[in-house]
Every structure is written in structure tokens, then in C-alpha cells.
Amino acid sequence: MEAVRQTFRDLTVVVPIGFVYRPAGILRRLRQLVHSGLFDGAELIVSVAVRNRYDDRLLSSFIPRISKACRVIYVQESEAEISIARLRHEGARAASRELLLFYDVDLICSQSVVEKAIAYLKGDRNPFVIIPSIYTRKKALSAGIAAGDGPVDQVWKGILAKRRYDLVYHVALYTSTILIERRVYFQSGGFDPNFSSHGLEDLEYICRLCIQERVFELSDIDEFLKDGRAVSPLFTEGFRKYLNLITIPIWLEGIFTVHLWHARPKRMRYFKERKRNYRIFSENIKREYNRKCAENGEYQFQSSFLKSYYEAPLAEIEKIFKSRGVRLESHGILFLDNPADLYRTRIERFIIDVLRRLDKKVSD
């Protein structure tokens, strides 16, 4: 335990909290996170959005009572939808340690995973680590996944060895769980607080950071900006395909979290915010791309590799596995394309499907 505390002595964990959706569930999971001891030795900052509403002020007053082990900062929000990007950024500004980890209350993880992520970051492979997540189905909660019978990575290795794919939606290879040096975070500009609610605020920052640090380079900005969403990495397009290339190796290191099931927003405003967020995403990435081009002239990606990745994605992914001595068939979970069971009735599922189809036209 003392060794873990030493490893985490340079770590600040930023957890954004808002009460727009399921406030009771968020408070419950925050309490579980704080009392789990997962980040013992680290600086834990809870960044709380407070709108000009009585219920927000009331709910936020409960957070300091959960534990004295975390610092609480309050971020005033004037809109109905809060900015998760602003919460993360303000949390980073309040941090005092060398490393930042952006984390959410709906995740479970192990100290060993965080230690591996820190070692990966310090291995000079990338200036940041994007931590993948296994998204679980509702039945996973009743199967005791929330309790975490031992280190989460070991639990899930056992579950996956038994092919319990019925507990899983899919693996999200790129998420908002990001480990980065505090210095690099502020040099890169950090999260853009102009984003509203959830949606693309994390991917915009990751893509902007990748361009700045030349983790990958672009030859066709319009192709890159396509928001080709898909559950399986075989079917993604645009920037999501690029992100697969840098996160599959992290997954193969055994660095991942588990995302616990929760009901998703069912409000029209949520999807309207996604459209606005895509516009911000597109403008920011184009600006960063043009700035890099002006600085360095040519700004080319490994175009031959990307072309082959588009034509035969499975073959290219298999090359990544082989280069690390890992068999592709032992990671079939990466290619799950399961339908979601987030909504309770057929009518709800139909309405959400229509909204998503309309939303997809924004980036087509």
C-alpha cells in the first residue's frame, strides 16, 4: 500500500460532477469512488457544476460531507446544460501535482491499472495516455460487477476468458479518461469550455493534442473530420479511425477501466447540443491543423498505411497485435457490435433511434 501511495504522490485526479441527469445516482457513485481507496495517496479534486437552481445548491452541499479526502471546487454555470469540458479544465487549474488524470464517477478501476498507465506515460511512448473502457450492460450490475471482486483488470480477464460477452456492450478504445502531465496539458490549451454538456469535448481535446504533439499527422483534414461512429473499430471512419491506432496498444498493455451501466439522457436538448458541439469540434481542429501547416509546411500522415487500414482494417489491426506477440482471437471483445438496451420500451428506442439518425447528418 505504501508503494502505491508513493506512485500516486505526483498524481491529481479530477472528477467532474453535474446534476442535470440522475443526481442521486451520481452522488452514490461518487461516495463509492471516494471510499474505495482507489486513489489513496493522490490529490482528488471533485469539480462541481452549480447552476442557479435550488436543487443544484442543495445537492452540491452534500459533497463535502462524503469525505475529507477530496477537495471540492464549485464552477458556476448559467445554462441549463453544464459544460463538462469547463469542469475538467477548472479542476486541472486547481491541481497542484505533476500528473493529471481525468476520471468519471461511472468507472471502476484498479490501482494496478493506474500504476501501469503512469509507467506507460513515463515510457516516452506518448505525451499522454487515453485509457479505454469496457461498457457494461445493465445485467452486469446484478452480476456483482460494481462491487469488483478483486482488482478490476483481473476480474475482467476472468470474465472475458469465460466469454461472458452478454455482460458487455462494447469496448470504447478512446474515452475521456486521460492521463497527462500537467505541464503538457496547459501548454496544449486544455479542454475547450465552449462545449456544452457531453459529446465530442473529450475527442476534440485528444485530436488537438495529437496534432500538436505529432502523434499522428494528417494529409486530408476533411476526411479526418468525418464523425464515422461505430461500436466496432472495424467500421469507424474519420478521426475515430485514427484514434484506434494509438489506443489499441494501450488496451494490449492491460490498461482499461470498466464503465458501469446507467440510463442515458432522453431529451431533445441533449442531441441539439451534440450538433453545436460538432461545429466547435470542426472549427477547432481545422484551426489547429492550419496552424501546424503554417509552422511546418508539409503535414503528412502515413498515407499508405491509412489507405490499407481503410481497405482492410482487420488485417492492419492484426499487425498491431502481432508486433506485440498477441493473438488477435484472444481479444474478440474489441469487435463486439452489440445493440444497446439503454431504454426500457420500444417507443423510447424508436424515438432515440430517429434522433440519432437525424444527428448523424451533421457530420455526413
Automatic annotation (TrEMBL):
Record-linked SUPFAM superfamilies: Nucleotide-diphospho-sugar transferases (SSF53448)
InterPro entries to which the protein is assigned, alphabetical: GlycosylTrfase-like_prok (IPR019290), Nucleotide-diphossugar_trans (IPR029044)
Pfam family, one: Glyco_tranf_2_2
Domain of life according to the entry: Bacteria
Every Glycosyltransferase 2-like prokaryotic type domain range: 61-286
Official protein name in the record: Glycosyltransferase 2-like prokaryotic type domain-containing protein
Source species: Stappia albiluteola
